[in-house]
Structures are given as C-alpha cells and as structure tokens.
Amino acid sequence: MLDNYILVVDDESRMRKLIKDFLAQKGYSILEAEDGERALEVFEENKNKINLILLDVMMPKLDGWSVLRQIRQESKVPIIMLTARGEEQDELFGFELGVDEYISKPFSPKILVARVEAILKRTNQDQKQVKEYGGIEIDKEGRTVKVDGKVIELSLREYELLTYLVENENIALSRDKILNNVWNYDYYGDSRTIDSHIKKIRHKLGKRGKYIKTMRGVGYKFEVK
Amino acid sequence: MLDNYILVVDDESRMRKLIKDFLAQKGYSILEAEDGERALEVFEENKNKINLILLDVMMPKLDGWSVLRQIRQESKVPIIMLTARGEEQDELFGFELGVDEYISKPFSPKILVARVEAILKRTNQDQKQVKEYGGIEIDKEGRTVKVDGKVIELSLREYELLTYLVENENIALSRDKILNNVWNYDYYGDSRTIDSHIKKIRHKLGKRGKYIKTMRGVGYKFEVK
DNA sequence: AAATATTATATATAATAGATATATAAATTT
DNA sequence: AAATTTATATATCTATTATATATAATATTT
Questions:
Q1: pLDDT tens-digit profile of A111-120?
Q2: Cα angle value A117/A122/A127 (rounded, 5°)
Q3: Is A186 strand, coil or helix?
Q4: Would you call B185 an interface residue with chain A, using a CB distance cutoff of 8 Å?
Q5: Which of A163, A176, B173, B174 is the most buried (most CB within 10 A)?
C-alpha cells in the first residue's frame, strides 16, 4: 500500500466524501478541510506529509484562488483545482499562478484517479517508487535507505533531513528553510543542530556523504556529481 | 464446490426466477431479495455463507448503488451489477467503488453463468493460497499460522495484526494506519495497545519474530531478511 | 603585486545531558 | 481468555554545548 497523503478541500461534504471514497479505495490517505481557512490550517499542520491537494474554487470564507496563492508562497505541493463548468475564464489565470491541473465538475472517478496518479508520478511525489541518486537509494514506502546496495540505519530526523535534501536536489537550502520543513513549525532551537545531523548523515553515507555540499553562509545542498 | 450461495436482488420477480433457474441448474444455492432494503436484511442474516451477489441497479426503496455502498462498508463479497442499457455513465462510477463485474440487461444465460463462474474462481483462488514468508505460513482460509511448520495459536487481534503487517511486507506502517486498519475506523484507544500485541506476536513467532521491525518514531514493518 | 599573516566568522566534530519512544510485565477491563 | 491500559525500565535519539577546524576578508610583509 502506498502512503500518499491527499488533502481534499471542498465545502460540500457530499463531494468530499465521494472523493475520499474513491481515493481511499486506491490506497491514498485523505485529509479533509471544509473551507479555505481550515485548509490552510490543515496544510500548516501536515505540510511534510501532504503530497497533493484537491482544491475547490468556490468556497465560503476564503476561496480556492486565495488558498492557492497562500500555499504557493511556501510550497510547491501539486494542486489540482476543482472547478464548476463555466469557470474556464479563470483557468488561464490559475495556470499562471501555479495550478498543476484542473478537473471540472461533474467528473468521473476515473478522470479523478487518472489525473491524481499522473500528477503524483510527474511531480515525483509518488511514494511507491524507489528512487536512486548516485548510489543512494531511497525507498519511501519502506523508509529505508541503501548506499551502494547496503541498507544504512538512519534515525527519524536523519531520514527526514536526508530525504528533504534529496528531494530538493541541486537546490541550496537555507538553515531556516530546513528547520521549517524538517522540524515542525516554528522551531526555535539552535541551528547548529542541523550541522550535527548533517555530520552523522555524511558519516553514514560514507563516500557518498560528499553529495551533501556545504553552502557557506547559506546552508546545504544535495548534489550528485 | 457445490455449496456456493448467491444472493439475487431484483424487483422483477420474473427476472429473479429466470436467474434462479439458470444458476440452480448449475448447482448454486440461491437467496432472493425483491428490493434494496430486503437485500441488506438478507445479507445481514447470511453474510458468512453468501459467496456472490447479483444486484440490480434500478429498484424501489433503495437502489443498487446504495446497497453496494452499504455492503462495501463491511464486506468484500463479490458483487455483479445488473444494469439496463444506457446506464454506462454510472458504470465507471461503480467500478471504482468496488463493483466486481457488470452485466447489462438483457443478457444470455451463457453470459450470466460465465461471469459468475469467472468471479467465483477468481476470488476463491485468492483466498485459497497459503502464503509463505520466510518460515511463516499463513493460511487465510483456515485462519491459521505456522512457524517453521508448526501451528501457533494466535488470538483474533494477533492474527489480524500479523496478517496486516505481512500483507504490507516491506512497508513501514504508522501506528495510525495500523489502528485504522486492524482496529475499527474510529478507535480512540491507547496506541501502546499495538506494542502490547506486537510483543505477544513476536514471542509466538520465536526467532521469526525479528521480521517485525520497529520503525522508531513511525511504527512497525514486516520484513523478511 | 604577490605571498603571507592576521582576524573574524562559519562550519565540523565530538561528547554529553536531556528528551522521547519502545519494550516489557503486571494490572485491569471486557 | 483476550484485549486493553498502566507503570516502569530500557534503549535510542536529539539538542546542546564546547572546542577544533575551515574559510574568507583584510592587513602586513616581502
């Protein structure tokens, strides 16, 4: 079974239930939110584990576009917008702003599942596949890491930190960003803590440890080269 | 073989009689229901012996889709939907929700029997297999577990928990997921309960108990290695 | 100007105390 | 009996600290 988390945001509970049922049956774990404000809360609390968001456009309090914009400030999580027919005007708008896909209501479950799967695959969020980065294999389902074919034991934080770096391959990550993403919400600890974990990970990765590059004055970057 | 019970749900008595005759001739035992509500009652009373359900879509009181959904809450019994032509729209819908097969009316007896047999065969085979995982044999039909050839006694929860882990071999399962799958959906118990059962299972599995790995900070994982 | 030395700052490393998660056994409830 | 809860022990992880080392910028000497 996979362990992809999908956040479903819609004000109609019937629609949420419907989507939930389809996706749950396909093995996805579902989180729900009944309006835009709640969506942001749920996202904030679970941002590390959410792999995709299904976002209704028309909602009370805070509409889908506003939610989209706010989430895009800090995250690249794939977002599928659920639109009613006749909202095509807005579509172009949304595409520019970082919408990954549209589904117009009413839709068939087949369409829904197909789009969800396509996007997860495309954005490489699919937990199911084992990915390889220059001798480092990461199996997200099994939560195991192999280096040159041999399993290495990583603690929870080490695993989270490594996968975060790896998922952001070739991107220099500031300590702040790392703290906000690997540690929970506002963590006021010493940022030397990161260094400490980096050291241990590098050691466990052996010669592959050099893929974690120090970006002096900034943070770290994972780069296979 | 000759003890397969099939529940036929259709509001037209002519249709029920027709189906009943075909299938009885092939040696199946038939239970009948003339509407959705009655279907649920009959199912409730005989759920352990019903091997397959033939379910008409259009019925008074409670339609086929509603019956399907309710039964799927608690059972994986194979269900064949009987649809009138022109209901193709809904088909996709149902497939995702756990329909095993469709037969559109009018149908030939040959089609009917062929589909019924195919499905019974398919679902029986799945159940019948005794699977082996590194010295641990699981016989789902017999609900027994052997370790290195010797039967071990497991309580209900222990059996359910072990088979859940084993069926998700090599996948790290969170306590939440385990609770949601092995216990009821809304079980608010202490998650130390899981540990307690894990301990007992490990003990009963003897040296094979080490296949249940502790994923610190996450949960457990079954892994033969 | 080039080479070297100084200084300031950032990161690496190792050791340790404190926090947390799990194992285990025993008690309680169902 | 079985399932769950509770209490305690144990193992493991995490954050912090202190110190060493690396690096970059600047100043000094050749």
A1: 788 889 888 8
A2: 65
A3: coil
A4: no
A5: B173
The Å distance, CA of B198 to C1' of C24, is 11
Rounded to whole angstroms, the distance from the CA of residue A66 to the C1' of nucleotide C20 is 39
* B160-213: pLDDT as tens digits: 999 999 989 999 999 988 987 888 656 677 778 999 999 999 999 999 999 999
Strand D contact nucleotides, protein CB < 7 Å: 1-7, 12-18, 23-24
- What is the C-alpha separation between B123 and B129, in angstroms, rounded? 11
Contact A197, A161 (CB under 8 A): yes
Query: Which residues in chain B (151-180) have CB-CB distances under 8 A to chain A?
Result: 168, 170-172, 174, 177
Two structure tokens written together for B117: 């047999």
The residue type at A221: K
A189 touches strand D (CB under 7 A): yes
Run of H or E including A165? helix A156-167
Neighbouring CB atoms inside 10 A of A90's CB total: 16
Which is more confident, A184 or B192?
A: B192
The residue ranges of DSSP E strands in A25-176, in sequence order, are: 29-33, 50-56, 79-84, 101-105, 130-133, 136-139, 144-147, 150-152, 173-174
The strand pair at B144-147 and B150-152 is best described as antiparallel
Cα separation of A71 and B192, whole Å?
A: 35
> How far does the CA of residue B92 sit from the closest CA of chain A (Å)?
7
pLDDT in tens, A195-206: 999 999 999 999
In angstroms, the CA B54 to CA A125 distance is: 39
Residue A25 has pLDDT above 80, yes or no: no
User: How far B215 CA sits from the closest chain A CA (Å)?
Assistant: 8
- Residue A86: predicted pLDDT: 57
Helix (H, G, I), strand (E, B) or coil at A85: coil
SS3 B198: helix
Q: Which helix (H) or strand (E) holds B113?
A: helix B109-128
